[in-house]
Amino acid sequence: MSAVLVAEQLGRYYGQVVGLNDLTTEIAGGVVGLVGPNGAGKSTLLRLIAGEIRPSRGSVRVLGHEPFANRELFRVLGFCPQQDALYEDMTGFDIVRLLLRLGGFAPAEAKARAERALERLSLTARMHDKVRTYSKGMRQRVRIAQAIAHDPRLLVLDEPMTGLDPLGRREVLELLRELGSSGTHVLFSSHILYEVEHLTAEIVLIHRGRLLAKGALPEVRALLSKHPRRVELSARRPRELARALIEWPEVVSVRVQPGAGAEEHLALETRDVGAFYRRLTGLAARERFGISSLCSADASLEAVFDYLVT
Amino acid sequence: MAETHLEVYRRFEGTLHEHRLRAWPIWTTGLRTALKQRRALLLLYLPPVIATVIFSFVVYLGFMASEQLERESPFEGLGEGDIQERLASGVVMGVVSGGLKMLEVTRQIIEFNKAMGFFALLAVAWFGSGLFCEDRKAGAHQLYFARPITRLDYFLGKFGVAAFFGLCAMLVPPLVICLVASISSPEWAFLKEEWDVIPRAIALAFLWTTVVTLLVLLASSLAARRSFALIGVFGFFMLSGAMSQALGHLVSRRFFALSLGDDLNTLGSQILGRSDAGLPVSPGEAWVAVSVFVAFALVVIAARLRRLEVVA
Predict the structure, then answer these.
(1) Mutate which of B142, B150, B153 to disrupt the A interface (most A C-beta within 10 Å)?
(2) Is B264 helix (H, G, I), strand (E, B) or coil?
């Protein structure tokens, strides 16, 4: 399968300000989360992909097309910008229908699709009200509705969860998951790492306009060899288990931590989590330490983000 | 109550139709939205409507009175010897008064048309001044330019919205008056003898609307807010007028052409076939000045639309 996105030495400058610098990457498709701190260049990258702006240097190809002002690509691309972008005096329905009409849909089809897309975002009851009466979350729903209404092959969403309440967030996450499972490529940015992690393991992490990491989250984490992986264990005999574990070459450190009541936990660091898990399985089968829980404390996106960015 | 939507999203299997005029949806939606501003429409169009009704009535009464005079017998109370002489003078007077009436109506239509230019400017400025700057401010251009349209389509759609309101003020009233004059004049004499007023009025309406719309869109493309664009439009008219007066009197008469209002008045007079020696700008200079302005406005608007991409 050809890549959805191919960027080569992609750069975009706003005068003296570097928005994106020397980004070379390929994204195969599926649901991909774009993460990075404020000012990292996420919106710039998404706008380059959506053909809203031209690269200052390098090139980007999206679904095989040069995206800037490419009408062929825009037929199969849905873009949800971060800015408000809506007319106060128009209704949500009118905005979505207008954009569908601009996409080449006949009036009846545009109307039906606008209604369906807004229904998907739970806006049916308010879709004929003017945008000026909408809450921030409702405006966000309209923006997402216009991006999905024409069934794009690639959906580009800049901070799609902004302004949504918890229920709205869950609905949008569910929607993106469904779109992804039905074959739509989804590329979205978010500050909320938990939500990105909840939706996909495929991430692109950029910082200060440069690509920091790309790929499946566990693979990215495994590459961070200078940060030993933290593993937390609960066992009936934690101190004896600690004595056994500290002998292993892949284990860097072991600490016994107080838990609830008289219970104690082990917190250890390992250089090779794969080897550690393999040996631990054997140990647990041979000895009876009563291991009751095991978790990797810093394999989350947040931990990876912290390691990479700070 | 919370809802879930677990149905699979329906994929579009049909064919997308390429609009020949891709600006059409922008134009129609823009008009629909603008036409909802009922108070503004009432304030902006009530004076032209009242003026048109009154003026139509005046034209109608003029023709009726003229017809009444013509119907009066020239032979009443005359001796036999005077009949031939009176008959000749009656015919001459009838022809002359009819001709004068026709000329009078034509002249009045011309003056009325020029007066409507002010209302056209108000309407275009009100409805057109926010078209680009409000889009830029809200980021709406990002939604437009993620669709299969070009910047030219975007411009044409917006131009159409503003121009529509200009044409409503510039084109409809003269056409209504011409219609009234045609119906009121005996045996469609107005239509037969002065028919060329209609295409001339249409040409003037299109010229005036095009130039004024470009001015408003130019201001909108440069301004950060709608109110600034409004100030820019009226400021331009006033400043260019004042500057042209000062430079025209102090340096050279050619500088009178700096006033866009005077240029349009000169061109209006020329298009309507009425030479007016009192106008400070010659038609040639006015054409040059207006052409330069139109070219300048188009270049700046194109550059500003191109630069929309760098606005985050």
Answers:
(1) B142
(2) helix
> pLDDT tens for residues A53-76?
899 999 999 999 999 988 889 989
Contact yes or no for A217/A197 (Cβ under 8 A): yes
Q: Where are the domains positioned within chain B?
A: 24-72+84-310
CA dihedral B104, B110, B116, B120 (to 10 degrees): 160
CB B12 within 8 A of CB A148: no
Q: What is the DSSP letter of A105?
A: -
* Alpha helices (runs of H) in chain A, residue ranges in sequence order: 42-49, 71-74, 92-102, 107-120, 136-148, 166-181, 193-199, 217-223, 238-245, 273-286, 301-309
Dihedral (Cα; B199, B202, B208, B211), 10-degree rounding = -90
pLDDT score recorded for residue A2: 75
Which residues of chain A have a pLDDT value below 50?
A: none
Q: How confident is the model at residue B8 (pLDDT cuts 50, 70, 90)?
A: very low
Per the structure block, which two tokens stand in for A279? 């040996």
Q: Does 3.90.1200.10 match the CATH number of domain A5-217?
A: no
Taking the domains of chain A in order of start, what are their residue ranges?
5-217, 224-309
Q: What sign does the CA torsion over B221, B227, B232, B234 have? A: positive
Q: Taking a contact as any Cβ pair under 8 Å apart, which residues of chain A between 76 and 115 contact chain B?
A: 77-79, 81, 83-87, 89-90, 94-95, 98-99, 101-106, 109, 113
Selecting from B6, B36, B309 the residue whose C-beta is nearest the C-beta of A53 gives: B309
CATH of A224-309, one of 3.30.70.260, 3.20.20.20, 3.50.50.60, 3.40.50.2300: 3.30.70.260
Contact of A203 with A172, CB cutoff 8 Å: no
